[in-house]
C-alpha cells in the first residue's frame, strides 16, 4: 500500500501520466481502502461522482491503478509460518535471473518476489503451513536448483501492515 506521503499532495508527473490534486486524492483514498464508495471518493476529491468514476477508469487505463486487492489473514487459512528468503544466483546463471524470479513467483507459497541490485540477487516472501513445509520448500525449490548458489531464510515473527 502506498502511504499518503509517498503519493503526495502536490502536482507531479508520473512517466507520461499527468496527475492533478483530485487524482492524487483519489489515489491516496483508494490506497487506504480500495472499497471506498465512488460518492465518498468524489466528495473527498471535490469532484462530481461521474467525474470521479471517469478519473478512476482513466487511472486504471493508464496503468497507474493496477488492481484492487483483498488483505487476507494467512493465519486463518492455516498458513502459520512466514519467511523472507535471500537467494544468490550463480554468476554463470545471471542471464537467467529474471526467468528464475518468474519461476519462483509461480510457486503457491510465494507471496512476493523482488529482483535486487546488490546482495542478495532475489528476495522472496513465502508463507507455509509449518516450519517443516518451509524446509521442504527451500530444499525442493531452491537447494535443488543449480541456478542458485546460496540462500538465507529469515523467519518473520511479526508483520506490521501499513493498515494496522
UniProtKB/TrEMBL annotation:
* Highest taxon in the source lineage: Bacteria
Any idea where the HTH asnC-type domain is? Answer: 19-80
A Pfam family of this chain: AsnC_trans_reg
Keywords linked to the UniProt accession = DNA-binding, Transcription, Transcription regulation
Biological process (GO) annotations held by this record are:
response to amino acid
GO molecular function, one example?
A: sequence-specific DNA binding
Q: What's this protein's name?
A: Lrp/AsnC family transcriptional regulator
Source species: Paeniglutamicibacter gangotriensis Lz1y
What gene does the UniProt entry assign to this protein? Answer: azlB_4
Amino acid at each position: 500500500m502506498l502511504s499518503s506521503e509517498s503519493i503526495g499532495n502536490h502536482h507531479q508527473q508520473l512517466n507520461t501520466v499527468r496527475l492533478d490534486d483530485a487524482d492524487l486524492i483519489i489515489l491516496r483514498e483508494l490506497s487506504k481502502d480500495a472499497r471506498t464508495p465512488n460518492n465518498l471518493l468524489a466528495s473527498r476529491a471535490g469532484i462530481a461522482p461521474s467525474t470521479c468514476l471517469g478519473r478512476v477508469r482513466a487511472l486504471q487505463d493508464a496503468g497507474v491503478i493496477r488492481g484492487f486487492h483483498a488483505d487476507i489473514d494467512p493465519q486463518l487459512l492455516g498458513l502459520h509460518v512466514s519467511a523472507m528468503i535471500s537467494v544468490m544466483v550463480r554468476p554463470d546463471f545471471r542471464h537467467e535471473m529474471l526467468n528464475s524470479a518468474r519461476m519462483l513467483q509461480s510457486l503457491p507459497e510465494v507471496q512476493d518476489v523482488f529482483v535486487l541490485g546488490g546482495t542478495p540477487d532475489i528476495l522472496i516472501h513465502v508463507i507455509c503451513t509449518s516450519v517443516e513445509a518451509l524446509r521442504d520448500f527451500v530444499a525442493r525449490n531452491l537447494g535443488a536448483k543449480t541456478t542458485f548458489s546460496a540462500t538465507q531464510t529469515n523467519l518473520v515473527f511479526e508483520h506490521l501492515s501499513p493498515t494496522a
